[in-house]
Amino acid sequence: MANLGNSPLPFAFGKKIHNKKYKRRKSQLQKTMNITHEELVEALQKYFGFDTFKGNQEAIIRNVMEGKDTFVLMPTGGGKSLCYQLPSLIMDGVAIVISPLIALMKNQVDAMRNYSEEEGVAHFINSSLSRGEINAVKDDVLAGKTKLLYLAPESLQKTENVDFLKGVKISFYAVDEAHCISEWGHDFRPEYSQIRSMVQRIGKAPIIALTATATPKVQKDIQKNLGMPDATVFKSSFNRSNLYYEVRPKTEDVDKDLVRYIRSMEGKSGIVYCLARKEVEDLAQVLQVNGISARAYHAGMDAATRSATQDAFLMEEIQVIVATIAFGMGIDKPDVRFVVHYDIPKSLEGYYQETGRAGRDGGEGQCICFYSPDDIERLRRFQQGKTPKEIGIGNQLLFETQSYAESTICRRKLLLHYFGEEYNEDNCGNCDNCRKTYRQIDASELLQLALETIQQVNEKQKAEHIVDILHGNKTAEVMSYHHDELENFGAASDEEESTLHAILRQALLVGMLKKDVDSYGDLKLTSDGKKFIRKPTKFEVPIEVHDEEEEVMEGAGATCAAADEVLFSILKDIRRKLAKKCDVPPFVIFQDPSLEAMATTYPITMEELMTIPGVGVAKAKRYGEEFLRVIKEYVEENEIIRPEDLRIRTVAKRSTRKKQIIQAIDRRVDLDDLAESNGMSMEEMLDELEAIVFSGTKIDINYFIQEVLDPDEEQEIYDYFKEAESDNIKKAMEELGEDYYDEMHVRLVRIKFHCDLGN
To answer: Rounded distance, CA 209 to CA 174, Å?
Structure first.
């Protein structure tokens, strides 16, 4: 007899219960259990237009139709949705689909209505509907028109919805994005933990839980939380062989690197993920000014804007979406050719799911991630204020992500191992690490040291702590445990920390170590690890080989281009004549570094001139016209190809600190207090003031100068700059006398001088 899962038992205390509802359910189960392969394929063709099932789809559907609890782990693009959509159309009653996002619900409901002639075949109930619309949905459900009803877990908890669903015949419950149940999942939602109690209140029926990303720990949490420990488990391989994985260093030129990359993917759709909404908006603007068709998408936008942006992307009216992780879940666009992570994700689960949106049709899919250790530290700071348990979980997830980014091991092997799947190929040929050149080093002695150290700390520390001990780092945690007193403390101080981390990662991959998830990642020795301590064997770790000549060339290419000496001389002549006309020293007009920059980049418009260091709006308007005219003539006469013509355009960053400083000076705030409130030294404050003034903005610091300098001293310094050929501080100190004047005071008067005469 078929396993009826969580259906009501027909017997109690040995006495048969004559239950008409149960008999009807049993009859329906027998009917669906007896459906043939040909009949299932016919239904697949009728509703979805496919001739064959993918992977485990048919087996999963049969399991659901037999009334059994089902757990489905299937990567993005594998066809999870069809696993509950098709049986819902065949079975008696309505399937309740619990889904986390309104956009995802709408997308799937629209798709289902396209598959069916019945408009009411699928509905959702959420906060976007009016009271009248919700009542219309309930009418369709009660009339038997609706086969799928989508609800968010929050909607499922509402008493009015619970009471309504108690009177509805439910075929099964589908819990989509089931990883949200687990605190170890990348998108944990407390509301998901209440699903089981809601199901018990409404009425038991079989459950199918589906997710694209779940480690063994997350899978265990899902089954336990939903009360389905004996569910039939269907796991598809996590290996997406068509996806190319690459991690690139995130430098100050990351925007330029991104623009160049997207230009190389001309005509191909892509998604760029950022962590913060402001970052999304700024980056979308950068892409737009560089001629790339891009739009921003994040949860802070109104629903109409998000929907219009999503539709434009699906219709290929725009090439690139720049988004937070709010974008992408359930988006049915099979030909996304690249997914870029501008920031390192918070977990490998999130990273894998987001990269899975590339190449869903089996075609090209490039997954590029920009990585900087600073981003990891920023994400750690975001955890402040959370509970110790949440911080422990968050830090372990971040460590796994950091390990992936910094590893020299095959990216595919690392990802699959993380999700509990072994990849036995030595080289996948489709990730950056497998395309680089490596030399193998024998790390047997270092591994033995590491394993011994793990043993010495009673297997109660994480990888970072073990590396700190071996490297001899006297961190607060190491000192608190007195682990600086261990025999192995500092035993590998001459090794790179990255090498020690690589050794531990390799030991995990080959099964000498394992991580205890319940303790947030403490390293435990396996039997193989203990055996290695007793009898070490050869243990090789790959270390990347760099081409020295290539590095030299790259370094040379990174240096600034030399200024055009002829143009520089011409510009100095113009400056001298203009200074004489305005009766100010030449350096008040533009300083030498500004002229050198002009003679290097050849600005010919007012907009371009204002990008030159030391040239703000005021100075550009006051003195710029003559310089621009001469530079333009020079460029045309000498047929010069300007760097600007090849430049990756940037968007000016909004400097809130600069604005705050100017406003504070307008209020006559003491500069010492102003520096302290901004976490700056006085020297750094003067640097900031000079940058403001040299770019052409006028400020009044007389009130502060009068507090720190006698009028005679101020006048002497001021007179010096009126006569000097240069405003160089070192020369000024030599002339004025270092024993008599303080450099800070001289810089203050120089700022006043530039404001009086130059701005």
So the answer is: 6
Q: Where in the chain is the domain with CATH 1.10.150.80?
A: 565-646
Query: Locate tokens 């092997």: which residue?
Result: 413
- Ranges for all domains in the chain classified under CATH 1.10.10.1390: 657-757
CATH fold of 11-235: Rossmann fold (3.40.50)
Which tokens is 756 given?
């009086």
In angstroms, the CA 598 to CA 532 distance is: 64
Q: Specify the domain boundaries for CATH 3.40.50.300 within the chain.
A: 11-235, 243-418
User: From CA 204, how far away is CA 198, in angstroms rounded?
Assistant: 10
Query: Which pLDDT band, with edges at 50, 70 and 90, does 644 fall under?
Result: low
Which residues are registered as beta bridge partners of 441? 541
Give residue 28's pLDDT band: very low, low, confident or very high (50, 70, 90).
Answer: low
Distance CA 293, CA 312 (A): 11
Homologous superfamily of domain range 243-418: P-loop containing nucleotide triphosphate hydrolases (3.40.50.300)
Q: What is the pLDDT of residues 564-620, one digit of tens each?
A: 888 988 998 898 888 888 887 777 788 888 898 898 889 998 888 888 887 877 788
The amino acid that residue 334 corresponds to is P
679-687, long-range: CB within 8 Å, 24+ apart, which pairs?
Answer: 682/744, 683/744, 686/744, 686/747, 686/748, 686/751
**How many Cα neighbours within 13 Å face the side chain of 331?**
28
Query: Left, alpha or beta for 111 (phi > 0: left; psi -120 to 50: alpha)?
Result: alpha
Q: Which two tokens stand for residue 262?
A: 């997207």
CA 158 to chain centre: 33
Task: Tell me what percent of the residues of the chain surpass a pLDDT of 70.
Answer: 89
What pLDDT digit, counting tens, does each position of 159-178 carry?
999 999 999 999 999 998 88
**What's the Cα-to-Cα distance from 83 to each of 70, 95, 297, rounded to whole Å?**
10, 12, 29
pTM score? 0.59
CB 590 within 8 A of CB 575: yes
According to CATH, the superfamily of the domain at 565-646 is HRDC domain (1.10.150.80)
| Domain covering 438-547 in this structure, CATH number | 1.10.10.10
Tokens of 148: 């799928």
Provide the percentage of residues in the chain whose pLDDT is more than 90: 31
Is residue 173 within 8 Å of residue 165, measured between CB atoms? no
**Which H/E stretch holds residue 414?**
helix 411-418
In 3-state terms, the chain is what percent helix, strand and coil (to 5)? 50, 10, 35
The kind and range of the H/E element at 672 are helix 671-677
| Residues of each domain in the chain carrying CATH 1.10.10.10 | 438-547
Secondary-structure class of domain 657-757 per CATH: mainly alpha
One-letter amino acid at 618 equals A
Q: Is residue 557 helix, strand or coil?
A: helix
Kindly tell me if the per-residue pLDDT of 526 is higher than 60.
yes
